[in-house]
Every structure is written in C-alpha cells, then in structure tokens.
C-alpha cells in the first residue's frame, strides 16, 4: 500500500483564490450586464518584449536543423545566459559571483519551494507577515510549518508582522531562527528595504547562523537609486543568503517560464554532527537529481533581456506598469484611502476604510464598483483589513477601475 505525504493534506485547497473566484462568479451570474474590472490579478498582461520574441523565434529555428539542434542542456543552465546574468545583473553593481553559483530554472516559485529539499524538516522558519503564500505552503508540504492554529497561523512559523507602524519593514526576531524568507520589493505590500535596513538582516543572519532566502522577483521595479537590487550588495551576504530572481515580472515571462537562483559557494549549513556543508554543492546534487534544465528557447529569450533593445523594451514595459501604479495610488489617496507601495513595486496595499475586514472591502468593491481586488488576509494574519491591487492591467481599465472606486467608496 502506498502511503501519501499527509503534510500536503494540511494545506487548505487554495482557499483564497477558490473563494475569490466563486464570489466573482456568483456576482457575474447575478449581474450578467456588469463590466467587471480585475485589479487583483497577479499576472502581467503586456506582450513579451520584441527582442525576446525574436530571440525565441530564432531559437525555435535552431531546433529545426541538425547542426543547431539543442537537446538536453546543462541542468544549471546555458553559459550564454549565465554569462549575461553575471555581467548585467551583478558585475554592473560591483558584485562578483562565479559561473557555478548561478542556477537557471523555470521560475522563482519552483526554486523558492524546492530549496527546502536540501534543508532538514525541523528547521525553524521566519516569514514576514503578510507574505507571498508559496513560501509557507512549501514548508507545510514537508511538515516544517507544523500544524495550523488559530488566526491561520502555523505552529512552527515565526511571523514578523509588517504594518504602517513599522513602515511594513519586518522587525528582527528576538529569538534565533534557522531560515528567514525575505521578499523585496515585497509582494503584497510593495515595500522595499534600504541598504541600512537590509544590512541589519545580513548582520542578524551572520550573528545567529541563519540562512536568508531572498526573493528579488520584483527587483526590476525598483526606481529609487539607493535601494539594493540584490542582497549581495550588502557585505557578508554571500556567506548567509540565497537569492531568487525571475524573468516573469521583469520581461513578461509568466507563460514562458525562466528565472534563476544564486547559491554562493560560501553559504553553508550544518549536519546534526556539526559538519558544515556547502549549499552550492548540495543544491547542485539536488538539481542534477531532479531537474533537467529550463528550455533552450526560454533561455535564449531571457538572454535577449540583456541586449540593448531588450533593455529598452523591458524598461518601457515596467514604466507602463509603474505609471499605472502611480495613477492608481493618486486616485485612491485623493479620496482619503490609505494606499501603500506602488513606488518601487507593481503592488498597492490598501487599508480598508471604516474598520472593514479584507473580505468586507473586497465585497464592497465588487458589488459597488464592479472591481476585483485580492483580500489581504490571504497573505497572512497581518493582511486582515487590507486589500492588494496590482498595476499589471491595461492603462484604461486601471483608470476606469480607480475612477469607479473613487465614485463608490
Ligand atoms: N516570488 C514572488 C514574490 C511572487 O510574487 C511570484 C509570483 O507572483 C513568484 C515568486 C513566482 O514567480 P515565477 O513566475 O518566477 O515562478
């Protein structure tokens, strides 16, 4: 008899998005003429930059000829892409990394979830609250998060609440934690950390022998010049931090699938007997065992992000979304709503007025403005009383959505 991994049974059936879809569906059925605007969508909507499309067309043609055909590639990724990453994402910021410290993948969700494979099930974990739900869920699925308790809190997870009182900057925990997840620019709050703030985390990790899993999926949205794009801009981070990057939100690759993980050789973790093990070596072992590489076509597309035309087109796309964010934020604040984020991230974190709950405000927006948002409670206990809006939509629809909110709230 095969036995199942019962930890997976502890995960509610994606309750947030199921409930959300059900509510939107019910509204549409009962209001067939309503023109619903989705400002809750966490996916990009603009077409892929032309430079990436051209590169992928060419890569597909390569597959049509025996001389240029590519079968299985290296599990860690093709050198053409790794070299471009080292040069454009790191050397340009004064960060020196080795070729073998970069691992190309099919997206940040994959590796931020899979990285737990090389870490023991009984490490303690710390997360900012609210948080991108996949970090906790992937820990639940291997038993590391413990059991679900009151207020939707997992027993083995240390929550670091982020609120207006601390400018949504996670407080350093008082106790030591084995693994900490940090995501900046943040989904869902849109917060960024300055160098000084990020340095505190790196110092904490060095002093407490903590591993930082740093998700920089939205680094391309940073506009302020003094905000770090990579955790390795902080001295000492190469000893304690893993970094996840993605082309999903940078270049519209949510449907193409390509990203990468940086695992510096200096990062180690311990065996029970106290032997220090290189996580780079262990991750390589894990990847060569379970992963057969991201597609050649996707990697050629990603490489083109770094070409002069690619850079220009990516910038234009991000400018478009960030202009949406700016318009949305202006509109919301003009009617007295408290809206955070939207300046270095495509997310707006909006406080529900008059003490309303997340779901209460969600319903009000849906029924009175025909606008779909995402209830903040879905991102963790500290998300109660907030909704998340995204700037990934079409400009005119974003404008109209905000106009309707302004007229109806
Ligand atoms: N990390 C964060 C913080 C995200 O918000 C998302 C997607 O929404 C991801 C990772 C997943 O990115 P990818 O498409 O590269 O898997």
How would you portray this structure in words?
The chain is an alpha/beta fold. It has 2 domains: 14-43 and 309-407, Aspartate Aminotransferase, domain 1 (Alpha-Beta Complex), CATH 3.90.1150; 53-306, Aspartate Aminotransferase, domain 2, CATH 3.40.640. Helix content is 37%, strand content 15%. It has 13 helices and 17 strands. The protein has helices spanning 15-30, 50-62, 79-90, 108-114, 134-140, 195-208, 237-240, 248-251, 279-290, 296-303, 308-334, 358-369, 395-408; strands at residues 37-38, 102-105, 125-129, 148-149, 153-154, 157-161, 179-183, 211-215, 241-246, 259-262, 268-270, 276-278, 339-341, 347-351, 371-372, 374-375, 386-390. The chain has a 7-stranded mixed β-sheet with strand order 2-10-9-8-7-3-6, sandwiched between helices. A 4-stranded antiparallel β-sheet has the order 13-14-17-16. Strands 1-15 form a two-stranded parallel sheet. The model has no long low-confidence stretch (mean pLDDT 96). The structure holds pyridoxal-5'-phosphate. Pyridoxal-5'-phosphate binds at residues 42, 107-109, 132, 183, 187, 215, 217, 246, 248, 254, 259.
């Amino acid at each position: 008899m095969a036995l199942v991994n019962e930890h997976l049974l502890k995960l509610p059936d994606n309750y947030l998005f199921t409930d959300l879809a059900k509510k939107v569906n019910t509204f549409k059925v009962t209001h067939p003429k309503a023109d619903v605007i989705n400002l809750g969508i966490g996916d990009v909507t603009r077409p892929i930059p032309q430079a990436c499309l051209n590169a992928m067309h060419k890569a597909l043609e390569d597959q049509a000829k025996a001389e240029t055909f590519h079968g299985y590639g290296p599990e860690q990724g093709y050198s053409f892409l790794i070299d471009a990453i080292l040069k454009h994402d790191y050397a340009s910021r004064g960060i020196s990394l080795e070729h073998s410290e970069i691992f190309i993948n099919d997206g940040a969700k994959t590796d931020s979830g899979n990285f737990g494979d090389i870490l023991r099930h009984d490490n303690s974990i710390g997360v900012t609250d609210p948080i991108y739900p996949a970090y906790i869920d992937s820990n639940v699925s291997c038993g590391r998060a413990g059991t679900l308790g009151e207020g939707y809190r997992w027993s083995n997870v240390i929550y670091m609440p982020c609120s207006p009182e601390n400018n949504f900057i996670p407080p350093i925990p008082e106790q030591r934690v084995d693994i900490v997840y940090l995501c900046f620019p943040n989904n869902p709050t849109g917060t960024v950390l300055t160098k000084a703030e990020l340095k505190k985390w790196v110092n904490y990790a060095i002093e407490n022998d903590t591993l930082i899993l740093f998700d920089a999926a939205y680094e391309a949205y940073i506009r302020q010049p003094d905000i770090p794009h990579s955790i390795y801009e902080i001295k000492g981070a190469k000893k304690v931090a893993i970094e996840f990057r993605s082309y999903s939100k940078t270049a519209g690759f949510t449907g193409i699938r390509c990203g990468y993980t940086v695992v510096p050789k200096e990062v180690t973790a311990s065996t029970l007997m106290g032997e220090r093990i290189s996580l780079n070596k262990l991750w390589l072992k894990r990847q060569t065992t379970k992963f057969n590489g991201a597609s050649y076509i996707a990697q050629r597309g990603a490489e083109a992000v770094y070409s002069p035309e690619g850079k220009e087109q990516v910038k234009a796309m991000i400018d478009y979304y960030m202009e949406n964010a700016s318009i949305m934020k202006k509109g919301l604040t003009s009617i007295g709503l408290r809206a955070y984020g939207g300046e270095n991230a495509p997310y707006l974190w909006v406080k529900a007025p008059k003490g309303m709950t997340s779901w209460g405000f969600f319903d009000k927006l849906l029924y009175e403005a025909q606008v779909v948002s995402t209830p903040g409670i879905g991102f963790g206990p500290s998300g109660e009383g907030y909704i998340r809006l995204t700037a990934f939509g079409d400009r005119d629809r974003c404008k109209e959505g905000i106009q309707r909110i302004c007229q109806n709230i």
